Amino acid sequence: MEWISRMVVTFLIDSMVQVVVIAGLALVCSWALRRAAARYQHVLWVAALLLSSLLPVWSLKSANFPAVRGENYHNTSALNQSRTGEVKANDSAASGTWARLLEFHILEPHIKEISVPSAVAAGFALCYAVFLIYRILGLAFAWRRVRNLYDAPSAQPASELVRTLVTERALKFHLKCAPRVYALDGIGPLTVGSRQPVLLMPATFLEAASRTDLDSAVCHELAHIARRDFQSNLICEFVSLAVSFHPAVWLMKSRVSQARELACDDLAAEKMRSPTLYAGALIHMAQSLLANTKGMSSGLAHGLFDTDHMERRVRNLLDHGKRLGRGWGRGLTWAAVGSMAGIAMAASAFSIQAASEATLRASSVGQGAQAKEDLGQPRIRVSQITFAETTKTIDEAEIRKFAKEIEGLKKLGESPESWLDEVEERTKALWQNHGYFKVKVEVRSKLESSSAGEQVFSVAARVDPGAQYKLKELVFTGGTVFTTAELRAMFPIVPGDIFSREMVARGLEKLRSNYGARGYKDSVFVPDTDYDDSNRTVTLKVGIEEGRPLE
Question: Is pLDDT at 7 greater than 50 in this prediction?
């Protein structure tokens, strides 16, 4: 279970940095939206909160793929011929989208490994588990307190006059049905519940409030229901549970709450058709209610005075005419959220990973050897590559796209002597993905320019595709964890399909993933091929050595 402890520590370290970055971006975007309606500010801060919760988890994906990051494209050559030796799961071709993005440096992660003793990692993981249990229990108790409010014996149905007012106002908010209304002393106006919302009003307030004050309170609470604030807040609480220890998350939750109340004020004032009248009622209710009511500390119920920024709320209502239009507000909001998400995704490529001392020593030795090997070697780049086929087999547009990929590579081969072999291997892979598994490729290069740091070549490749093969049969031997039908379902290729190298590689990767999910991390898969040249078919045999499951 040591790897779980290290994953937890990695998550905590990354979240401490990434959440601060997102909070900073949200503050900048919030300033850019300062003249937009409050509902757009609410969308921005909810998006920031969700990003803060999901981004550290996404960063763990990079930490889980060291083998993919270190693989060379030549690993796929294992499928070119029959094999009798062992093939490790991570040595099989990983030609999926993620591997290709890493290979072409589009989403290459930058991971800094730090040494964390096993005992320290286990201690952090245990403390974090205790914290999560504490937070989950806290939410459970908060939910229970909310339920106890309107289930309390002292909670009585509101008068007919109040229920009629709520029904009339519910129609203006386009609600399917009016919420139930209860009178309960000791609280401020609150809205609780999701499917069947309940409106709780102080009994003394219902007895003494003016028509304007009562109307304003009802409109504000109905705005919460119309906006589905209870549901969205509940989702935010659960999603942000994993990073709820972070002070920046506390800030974002506070901004979400403030923007939510301002948005409800806007909607309530719109239904009352008088922002000034609503602002005056808000101040009057604050003076009469706050001294005799208690707030909800759970954060699940939504009340009229959940935030203490009364001055800002009043100013927001009175400055309504200085706001941006709906089109500008919506456009700026999507631009801000998109920019924030894009920058946050880029930041997730930089990760700090907790590793053992042995792993760091091994990594240091490997990096030192690579540095010595690369010392003094210029970078190889292909400026242009052209293809000549003896027989027309692949669409010209696909060949041009492949040529652009080769010409876009920033680094080829491990040495000046091997880069042309890599171009040849990639070219073979293109035709083998279309079933031409016995393709013959002859490549020639011409030096175009040379400097101390880079050598630029043009390449001409002559391709003899040969015959196109189809899959005849898929055979598995040695597997007991999965049935034969389950194993065949893992491969995106069936008998009769073109025998595509890429499809076989995806099947082997899926095989490795499913065995790993069952605990068989050390399973070995040995692919072997039998060709029937007369019928142009291939029988793929996969030998499985399952090993022992990890306990």
Answer: yes
β 470-477/524-532 pair status: unpaired
Q: Tokens 């390449």 map to which residue? A: 459
The pLDDT value recorded for residue 84 is 35
3-state secondary structure at position 179: coil
Q: Where are the domains of the chain?
A: 377-464, 470-545
Q: Could you give the CA distance from residue 293 to residue 183 in angstroms, rounded to a whole number?
A: 13
Which distant-in-sequence residues (6+ apart) come within 8 Å of 484 by Cβ? Answer: 476
* Number of other CB atoms surrounding residue 28 within 10 Å: 12
Q: Do domains 377-464 and 470-545 have the same CATH topology?
A: yes
83 by DSSP, 3-state: which? Answer: coil
- What is the spatial distance between Cα 138 and Cα 450, in angstroms, rounded to a whole number? 66
Alpha-carbon distances, residue 322 vs 27, 259, 468 (angstroms): 21, 17, 69
Identify how many contiguous H helices and E strands the chain contains and give both numbers: 18, 13
Q: How far apart are the first and last CA of the chain?
A: 9
Residue type at 238?
Answer: F
Going by their DSSP bridges, the two strands 537-545 and 156-157 should be labelled as unpaired
Q: CA-to-CA distance for 395 and 483, rounded, in angstroms?
A: 38
One-letter identity of residue 283: I
Q: CB within 8 A of 64, min separation 6: which ones?
A: none
Residue 301: CA atoms inside 13 Å, Cβ hemisphere, count? 28
Mean pLDDT in residue range 302-312: 61
Lowest mean pLDDT among 223-237, 407-421, 481-495: 407-421
List of long-range contacts for 450-455, beta carbons under 8 Å, 24+ apart:
450/378, 451/378, 452/378, 453/378, 453/379, 454/378, 454/379, 454/380, 454/381, 455/378, 455/379, 455/380, 455/381, 455/416
**Considering the chain, what is the average pLDDT of its residues?**
79
Q: How far apart are CA 8 and CA 128, in angstroms?
A: 8
The CATH T-level fold of domain 470-545 is: Ubiquitin-like (UB roll) (3.10.20)
CA distances from residue 374 to 408, 423, 488 in whole angstroms, order as listed: 20, 19, 43
**198-237 confidence digits (pLDDT tens):** 888 888 778 777 888 888 888 888 888 888 888 888 888 8
pLDDT digit string (tens) for 78-134? 444 333 333 333 333 333 443 444 444 444 556 677 777 878 888 888 999 999 999
CATH of the domain spanning 377-464: 3.10.20
Cα–Cα nearest to 121, from 11, 284, 199: 11
- DSSP annotation of 158 reads P
Q: What's 385-452 look like in SS3?
A: EEEEECCCCCCHHHHHHHHHHHHHCCCCCCCCCCHHHHHHHHHHHHHHCCCCCCCEEEEEEEEEEECC
pLDDT score of 25? 92
Pairing relationship of beta strands 350-355 and 156-157 according to DSSP bridges: unpaired
Give the C-alpha separation, 249 to 20, whole Å.
9
Compute the average pLDDT of residues 136-161: 77
